């Protein structure tokens, strides 16, 4: 598929962090091109950008991504140049990789706070004192469901982390979003995400740890405005499907969570969300985290 609109670029945002060099997960051949890589799941980011370049007809980008080892070497050089040019010490960065239709790669860097290693590769989505329960549909298509008191299907994994460590503030959008290739593949066409955050979050709340759940006109939750999302349903954690052009982003951390068996794909309806339920979120810069969902009736 070729789109003639040249006003957008393909991109992917990932984390550069010296801490990742010591991660066996991160340095595995399935996730990295080098034996010791400071880039978070770089191979998955390369795969995602390669798919986007093929789908959008950015043919000049394809050869720039084919050799992942060369790509990583280029990124290391640019990180070093950024650190030298700004006289900063080695530390975690958000790295935004962008390609235009001519195949020219740009990189943008933003300092990000350090996080524990477990944030990148959690062993479970179980949360201490977890209280998610079976759901009973309400009469409203947009409001929260009633939670029954009995639940024999709680997760049995070891607890990680404690409920008191929740950091994300998660809100359901007030209006639906039409899914498209731009909600499946990452491009700079992000007006729909900006609009979602603008109409849903308080002006002073649009910080990196405030997230909005996006849903389609048919009432399916597909993703967060900047994260993949995970819900506890019927005794297991699930993440919404990402059928091309009909779902949310084909996220790198989402891909890893599925491969690691932390979750399965399953549709999540707006009718099924519960006020106060725990929701896990993840992205390629901040790793994994969780928070409590706020649902506002329209």
Report on this model:
This protein has 298 residues and is of the alpha+beta class. It folds into two domains: 10-114, no CATH class; 118-294, D-amino Acid Aminotransferase, Chain A, domain 2 (Alpha-Beta Barrel). It contains six helices and 14 strands. It has helices at 42-55, 62-66, 68-85, 181-184, 191-200, 252-259; strands at 10-16, 93-99, 105-111, 135-136, 146-147, 168-172, 210-215, 220-224, 228-233, 236-239, 264-265, 268-269, 278-283, 287-294. The protein has a nine-stranded mixed beta sheet with strand order 11-10-9-13-14-6-7-8-12, covered by helices on one side. A three-stranded antiparallel beta sheet has the order 1-2-3, covered by helices on one side. Strand 2 and strand 3 form a beta hairpin. The chain is globular and about 50 Å long. The protein starts with 9 loop residues before the first strand and ends with a strand. Residues 1-5 and 131-159 have low confidence and may be disordered.
């Amino acid at each position: 598929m070729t789109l003639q609109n040249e006003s957008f670029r393909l991109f992917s945002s990932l984390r550069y962090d010296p801490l990742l060099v010591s991660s066996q997960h991160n340095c595995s051949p399935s996730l990295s091109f080098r034996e010791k890589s400071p880039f978070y799941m770089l191979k998955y980011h390369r795969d995602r950008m390669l798919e986007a370049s093929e789908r959008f007809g950015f043919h000049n980008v394809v050869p720039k991504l084919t050799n992942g080892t060369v790509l990583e070497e280029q990124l290391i050089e640019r990180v070093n140049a950024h650190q030298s040019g700004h006289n900063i010490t080695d530390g975690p960065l958000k790295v935004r990789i962008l390609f235009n239709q001519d195949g020219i790669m740009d990189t943008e860097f933003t300092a990000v706070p350090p996080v524990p290693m477990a944030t990148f590769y959690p062993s479970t989505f179980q949360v201490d004192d977890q209280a998610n329960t079976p759901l009973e549909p309400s009469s409203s298509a947009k409001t929260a469901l009633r939670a029954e008191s009995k639940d024999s299907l709680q997760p049995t994994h070891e607890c990680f982390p404690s409920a008191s460590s929740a950091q994300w503030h998660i809100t359901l959008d007030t209006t639906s979003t039409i899914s498209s290739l731009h909600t499946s593949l990452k491009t700079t066409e992000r007006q729909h995400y900006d609009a979602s955050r603008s109409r849903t979050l308080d002006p002073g709340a649009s910080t990196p740890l405030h997230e909005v759940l996006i849903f389609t006109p048919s009432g399916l939750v597909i993703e967060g405005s900047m994260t993949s999302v995970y819900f506890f349903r019927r005794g297991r954690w699930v993440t919404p499907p990402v059928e091309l052009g009909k779902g949310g982003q084909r996220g790198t951390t989402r891909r890893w969570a599925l491969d690691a068996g932390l979750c399965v794909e399953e549709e999540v309806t707006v009718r099924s969300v519960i006020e106060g339920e725990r929701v896990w979120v993840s992205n390629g810069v901040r790793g994994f985290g969780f928070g409590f969902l706020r649902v506002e009736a329209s």
